[in-house]
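Let's study today's protein:

:::
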Amino acid sequence: MGLWEIMVIAVSLSMDAFAISITYGLSIKNPKITEIFIPGLYFGFFQALMPLAGFFAGTYFAKSIQFLDHWVAFALLGFIGGKMIKDSFSQDKEEPDKAQFQHTKMLLLAIATSIDALAAGITFAFFEINIFTAILIIGLTTFCISTVGVKVGNIFGGRFKSKAEFAGGAVLIILGLKILIEHLFLT
């Protein structure tokens, strides 16, 4: 897995955080600079932490299931992508609520949106990549995209939330297929 794939995964993983950041942006008028960075800090930190945890868990089990690594990567990325696409069609349209973004709730949201990053970290264990480079890219990408999401939500409203989740899910499924096809037919 190369740097390009890691960057694409980073953008895809950050789509949940982007969608929530849009909602956060909807809830505040004339946001202060600190309010713009709050989601980025929470989401970026956990999106970097979870792949690291997944990587170490995957490394522990990698040798025993190495013959299945491409199938595991395909299944995890496909599951995550499918869930994101399903969520993009959800009829639960949350109303923005500034109280929803207090510390405890932001912490829970950050953990919830980074569970897919944990699964991605497991797939990283099967490939020869520098995990610290990967988590730096994922964390910074999520931070930037979440920060932009707050501003987008503040300016444009909720138009992009479901589209961002759908696009992120589709990209993860395509990456899973790419890994599977490369392993089955090109190695």
